[in-house]
């Protein structure tokens, strides 16, 4: 019999993987990996604020992530500095402020490692509820904006000319990434969250012939990574979050060898 | 200021589908377009030409309704369907997508058989299950055309529809566009750099360089002094072969009506030397290409 903390970790991790896979496809297609990392780094400020004001950590991280995402959208309208520079400034400023705030807090001993690399074995049923509530919301919203977002990813000018709500779809995507960062932080930590978005999606690419198939495969590969990572963590006493990421990476490497898609593409070219 | 005394010179063309009236666009204090008039009617091909940076794509974006003009208005026939082929389209291999899925993406479901018919018409029927990113330049342009046609367009707006296509492929594509115009009875507005080929495949030419330089039948435009000053004296000569022109233009770009009357003065702050150099490259290619065997 599995211990109940293992069951919670498994259920929570699988929930994250199910939403991170499809969302991660857009992160990969739209080259938003750095955007995701920036939001995740900034999330540590949310942790500090959550502790400071005594509100739950997940809502605090969610608020800070959403605010960061909105700021980035605003900043993207200026042309003077490249977007990745702005992302870096915002992310590291938020990270630094978060670390300072955590250090200054009197009487609170914070296990920084748990936030940086996750502590999936300590999640409670409340966290699982957040994951499934937030995850269902995110997947529902993603389904709603799927077509305009996909069209805009292919060619924004064409999507705009065809009257699709491109701006709204992009805004929704950014908010969803912020949401997933907030609910996934407990699982793998702020430094590893983006890997759950991009590695399963990247591994899914060579098996998929349609965008929807890639999203489903990414979710499945994510679930396998969570199961494999937690199993390795149990068996050899590895840290759980990093083990999940390592398992995902292993599946990615296997996909490079197994997927004939890449080779077929090369021939057709 | 158009060569034939008005922008509406299409022979045999029907009602106007879309009309841009006195369009002006400024960005960051820079004038991208001013006082541009353009009109496309049913069943005519209008080609928009102009040097690099002339505002051709800006004008297209205004007509599409993607960009709001600072001055002027765009009048569309009510319920107008526009099929659009953008200037730059790159199919990214990271996004798995078959050709037929690409055509149907974001469209209300077309009538039964429409997809097959359009794939046949554009000559890409055997590619319907091919990954989009594996298409050649010509195949991709055909797929984009097919996608535009699937939207049952009254007007096709094609921003450089033959880019990335080899010379014989370009001729095929222009033939296809002409055939589609006849079959669908739609209007076509296309942007092109290929002065030589375009002159033959178009009903009317509109030449802009931020302002409207001249517009009218291809022959009249190719003789127009401002056209000649933009593209070099030989551009018109090669396209039409019938006209000798006095090439003594200064680089300020005078706007002279076709009857050779009085000058309107326009301020040009762009680099004419560059434009001329560009046009000469085209001319060399045209010299070789007139027999249809060129490798431009």
Describe the overall structure:
The complex is a heterodimer of chains A (269) and B (296). By secondary structure, chain A is mainly alpha-helical. Chain A contains 12 helices and no strands. Chain A has one domain (4-194): ABC transporter involved in vitamin B12 uptake, BtuC, CATH 1.10.3470. The longest helix of chain A has 30 residues, at 125-154. Residues 264-269 of chain A have low confidence and may be disordered. By secondary structure, chain B is α/β, with parallel strands linked by helices. Chain B has a single domain (16-90, 152-289), classed as Rossmann fold (3-Layer(aba) Sandwich). Chain B contains 10 helices and 9 strands. In chain B, strand 6, helix 5 and strand 7 form a beta-alpha-beta unit. In chain B, 46% of the residues are buried. Mean pLDDT of chain B is 75; it is low at 1-12 and 238-296. Chain A binds chain B through residues 28-29, 147-148, 150-151, 153-155, 157-162, 164, 205, 208-211, 213-214, 261, 265, 268-269, and chain B through 61, 64-66, 82, 84, 86-89, 91-98, 101-102, 105-106, 130-131, 133-134, 151, 157.
